Amino acid sequence: MEDTYLALITAAGASTRMGRPKALVPWHGTPLLLHQAWVLEAFLDISEVVAVVGKDATAIGAARSEWRTGLRLVDNERWEDGRSTSIEAGVAAFIERHPRGVLIVAVDQPLEREVVERLLMARPEPGEVVVPTYARRRGHPVLLAGSFLPALGRATHHPEGLRDIVRAAATRFVEVESNAIHLDINAPEDLDAAESSP
Fold this sequence. Notes:
By secondary structure, the chain is of the alpha/beta class. The protein has helices at 32-41, 57-64, 83-92, 113-121, 149-152, 162-167, 188-196, and strands spanning 5-11, 26-27, 30-31, 46-53, 72-75, 101-106, 128-134, 137-138, 142-145, 170-175.
């Protein structure tokens, strides 16, 4: 087992409610996808960051070419079939890797460095999933032990994909000091509210 982590960002959705690619929406002045990548790349324990793209792959790829980041893009041609197909596409990019854990991140759920740090410090054991909580409410992202890579690679075999995999796992909850773990930027009003909140 490698003593490092992999990070998978899902960014293949249609962004219907946002009206433009969520991956490229500015979050405090930085495109959301780039923000996610920079937070993850700040950790030496995370050896690779992959983002799975779909409908807006061309626009995201063009923007990515101008970013200072090691982020790797993976195209999901089945993006219309749901997020589980993106998880499968991302896992397929981690060929012959045996990480300690895999962090599953949605592009529209802005990360905070302190939250990622708390999750990585938990160092999940095989068969374990680490979930952040704030004010007794669970949030995101989730960190799965590397032993879950095969299950993630078959995420579409589960009716609710990642949720089913997490529900069936031994779950360890980690309390964090930020309600950012509950953010979900689906529409312009969500973005406005989140950026203006203290």
